[in-house]
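Input sequence (262 aa), recorded before submission:
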Amino acid sequence: MSAVANAIAGSLIERNGALVGYLPVGFPDLATSVDAAVALVENGVDVLELGLPYSDPVMDGPVIQAATLTALQGGFRLQHGFEAVHAIRERVDAPVLVMTYYNPVLQYGVDRFAADLAAAGGAGLITPDLIPDEAAEWLAASDAHHLDRVFLTAPTSTDERLRTAARLSRGFVYAVSTMGITGARSDVDAAARVLVERLRTAGVEYTAVGLGISSADQVRDVLGYADGAIVGSALVKALADGGVPAVARVAAELAAGTLRAE
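Predicted structure, token format:
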């Protein structure tokens, strides 16, 4: 059974859907990044998306790029990612997905990476630059170690690509709400609604929308048509500006958007 899918299913029973929260490992330092991730769960985040800092984060906006650069300059190593997952899972029960570009996984060894992630208590991977058609080795490793795999889709994805993502993803399919890089925006692109509708037609079980969500109202709007809302830059900015107390407060504010009206 998919831990992530179970968390989303539970959120749909109790509330309007799931809140997925992103933070990078090692920002501003390893211990604080663990505390911040725990604070997200304690304040309403259903699924954690833990980013591995990477030297060429082509999809990330300036807030996340600055945070990952700080982590790399502070000595982040890949092993710290597994350590962070283990430390978080010792303190909270929410599933932890690791978001990583695929090159570090290849360099580490795909099956070895999967084995170490599973041993740390991780739920699976979000791989923004890996398409399902080229993921045979990761598909095999994730099956062998019972890990979820989240592939990205975009408004420009073909119907065939959406069907493939729906069939091969486990946990949820990540619907990118707008083309470009991550970052909080005043409006979540209306293309997200159409993309989710296309994914439903393609047979998706659960889909979550990311890129640009930064308020409880946007979370509520997204959960009107999707199963999950993914927030990254707004949480990273809160951590950068005000530390763990600030990121806890912002998480709680965002989580209010998952509640059903009385």
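Checked by second reader. The CA atoms of residues 57 and 133 lie 22 Å apart.
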